[in-house]
Input
Amino acid sequence: MNAVAVAGHCTTKFSAGDIKIESLLFSAAKSLFEQTQNLTQKDIDVVLVSTNDNKKYLAPIISEMSGISPKISHNIESMCNSGTNSIVSAFSYISSGLADVALVVGAERFDSPGQVLEWDLSRGEFRHPVFWASMFTKAHKRKFGTTEEQLAYVSAKNHRNAQDNPSAYDSKKYTIEEIMNSKKLTDDLRLLDCSRPCSGSAAVLLVSEKVARKFTDSPVWIRGIGQKTTSASFTRNDLTRIESTIDASVQAYSMAKTAPDKIDVAEVHDAFTICEMMILEDLGIVQKGHAGKYIVDMYNTESRKINPRGGLIGSGHPLGATGIAQVAEIATQLQANAAGRQVEGAKLGLVQNMSAAATSSTVLILES
Amino acid sequence: MNAVAVAGHCTTKFSAGDIKIESLLFSAAKSLFEQTQNLTQKDIDVVLVSTNDNKKYLAPIISEMSGISPKISHNIESMCNSGTNSIVSAFSYISSGLADVALVVGAERFDSPGQVLEWDLSRGEFRHPVFWASMFTKAHKRKFGTTEEQLAYVSAKNHRNAQDNPSAYDSKKYTIEEIMNSKKLTDDLRLLDCSRPCSGSAAVLLVSEKVARKFTDSPVWIRGIGQKTTSASFTRNDLTRIESTIDASVQAYSMAKTAPDKIDVAEVHDAFTICEMMILEDLGIVQKGHAGKYIVDMYNTESRKINPRGGLIGSGHPLGATGIAQVAEIATQLQANAAGRQVEGAKLGLVQNMSAAATSSTVLILES
Output
């Protein structure tokens, strides 16, 4: 398997803006070109677009807007996990030898049709993601004694981290009390327990080992990849575990020949506060049932190890851009370029992303 | 680069049916399982769905319906060329070593939103594909003296071939006169010069060399891959050449270490009669400007070398399924299983597919 590196990346400012999907995609591609040394249009072999938008042929369109005539160009969609799927697809185009340079651009509008899965009729009118997140929360509380206050610390930490992320949609700081008093949406979740859909985009340039040094002096290598789809519907037995993330992380650690205790920094899919807790447990970063205390400790010690850019709760969640923005953040951290939000000495990073009630997951391990 | 083979394939009956996209996809997956020896759900590492449908998360949905829990699952869209893009993506997942077995399923409904590109505003109200095809036709007539009668032979040949294709949507036989007297749509094109959108699906199983013999005694190897995106808009200087197909074919012949005169059988994207002519010239199968006579000769000698299943004109054109049905047909031919439409002794086959006024193309070379 040929080695593949991240050689360039950018994230645009997330917002509530009513911006055309083509403009969102183009902004990210343009910034990436401006920020990547020696990159010219003719270098690009592959253009992948990650989005849930209904517009068609967006990869050739963004190629034309950017002056690129790639070999390969297509859209990739798998709801919230579209961006990380696109990164893995680009990895495979390069690793197989079909390409040397791939531009992966993700974008979403605030009104994306990918926010609710119109499939699982068993959920009746309770199709919005807040309902499965609420069930996860109730189960975790019952089994492990997780408290509303601990959940609020996830939100407080990620909003605080987002203050040092210039791309974040909502970089307000909230007290634990403010979060616990925010509008109640279900029995178990309040408004500030939730990430918010928004308009935004991100881009990553993946390159083969052969050409990496042309574009960057500090390549970030993709060392581990794990992916798992357990189902499309919300049909789980144990509401306190995310099987797809467990499976994907086992694959990723094995491929990277590493273990959870070696991870210096991670971006995980905190669509809701409970998700960050369950994911940290299911990645093996903290023991099952102990994430509540772990997160309170992180908050109190001002650790930025988990979701240094503010995660989805702090940064906003433009679905198709999210996985790409996560990879861009970890690459920034491993290149020691994260300024005020830098995790000191980070060498090994992890990205976890997932879709639709955690029915599919991707885990990536990156190394500088 | 690890070798990759087609180990199973199927095409459902194309129709005008108002069938749910999930049902179309499932029908193809189910048939593929029934027709492929030793294939079980747990063998599948990757499920890729090719469609222009607006429904989301279809790859996990079709996985769940089929009882599969793959690692990788996502949708791929690039308009008419979605199916062949999906085949190449699956190839790269396997060739890179990330997977051994990939199920690629394509489907489209008759009312697909991928039929007209809502982007190129320079075309004003003339956005329907029939208009660019009409411009191609006029240019070819002017430059090479191509006649309406020669164009009618493409349609007559492909409709005749489709009579032996049990999956074909419209397997009526037409005389040259009937075609030339069919309803005039533009100055240059009549109804029977055009392929028709329809509902249909197809599936292909791609496998690594390591596991190929478990699933088939007659693997068909993907020897050459070429892809090119020239633009998204209809912005070409020479209306008699398809640059994206020329570029893609040069890549594919080079990778397969072969040449156009070695090709025994080909499926090409005859969305309109003029397309088959231009593609045969741009693939180097016939000299530029000579396709008209070549096609009349094929008709008169009853050669099935080009579009043996009837192509898009004879079989119908369910966008996301088309590229996959083309690969299924060439695999069937190279396995000598094509019954009444068999090209005798075919060992080396070619698939050409393209999107949106031929602004992007894929060329594959397959060998038994």
